[in-house]
Amino acid sequence: GGDLRARMPPALAARADELGHLARDFDSMAARLEALVRSRERMLRNIAHELRSPLARLQVSSELARRDDGRLSVQLDRIEREIERLDGLVAHTLTLARLGAKGLPLQPLELVGVVQAVVEDARFEAAARGVSIEWTAPPPAMVMGDRVRLASAIDNVLRNAIRHTDPDAPIRVTLRTAGDRLELDIVDGGPGVPPDALPHLFEPFYRVRDDGRPDGEGSGLGLSIAMASIAAHGGGIAARNALPHGLWVGMWLPRAMAQASAPTRRAAA
User: pLDDT tens, 183-229?
Assistant: First the structure.
C-alpha cells in the first residue's frame, strides 16, 4: 500500500496557476482518502474488540455447562443471552454499513405520527425503570422520509435517554417547526456526559466511560445509526449537556410541503 500521508510540495500547492489548483485538489483528495481508510481501520478494530468479549463469555459458559454441577440451565441462559448480544451487534453493524452504502427511498411522511408511535412504544421500557416521558403532539408536519429508518433513529436516541436518565427527572420530547425544517429535541434527566466526550458520542462503538452514564448496555452503535439515518434524510443531529443536568440530543430534518400523492425519490448516499 502507498503512503496516505503523502502530499504535494508546499511550493507547488501555493502556486496560483492551474498546477497549484491541481496540487491543492490532490492534497484535498488524499486527505479525504486517508481519513476514510483510517476510519475503516478503526471500525474494524472496534468490531473485533466488541466481538471478543461476548465470544470469551460464551467460551467460559460452554466450559461451565460441561460440568455436572446442577447449574446447566443457568449456563444455557447465559449462552443464549450472549448469542442474542452477538446477533444484535452484527445486525446493527450491517445497518450502519447499509446506511453509508446507498441512499434511502424517500416518500412524503407525516413525522408527528412517527414520533408518537416511538414514544408510546418506549414508554413500556421507561415505565419498567420508573421513568416518565413528556410528549405533546404538535400539528401534523411532513418530511420526505423512510418511516422505518426514521423511527429507528428516533428510537435509538430515546432509548439511550431512558437508560441514562434519573427516574425522578422525566425525559422531554419536543417536535417543532423552525422555518424550512423540523426540529426534534430529546432531553434526559441524567448526569450528562464529560465535555471531552461530546464530540465522540456519535462515533461507532463509542461509550462514555463515566460513573454517571453506564456503558455496559447496548452495542455502542445506536447513536451512530441515528446519525447515519438522519444524514441520509438530509438532516443533522447534535448533542450537548443540558442545564442544570442531563443530555440534550437535537435532530433536524428538511420540512416537506409535498402531499401524499407526490412521487417517491431516493436520498443521496
Answer: 999 999 999 999 988 988 888 777 776 544 444 455 567 888 888 88
* The residue count for the chain: 269
151-189 pLDDT tens trace? 989 998 999 999 889 888 899 999 999 999 999 999 999
Domain boundaries, the chain: 18-101, 105-262
Is 200 labeled as catalytic in the residue annotation?
A: no
Q: Which candidate in 21, 49, 92, 200 is catalytic?
A: 49
**Which residues lie below 8 Å from residue 210, measured CB to CB, with a gap of 6+?**
191, 193, 194, 197
The three cell numbers of residue 111 are 413525522
Q: Is the pTM here over 0.85, yes or no?
A: no
Coil vs helix vs strand at 251: strand
CATH topology of domain 105-262: Heat Shock Protein 90 (3.30.565)
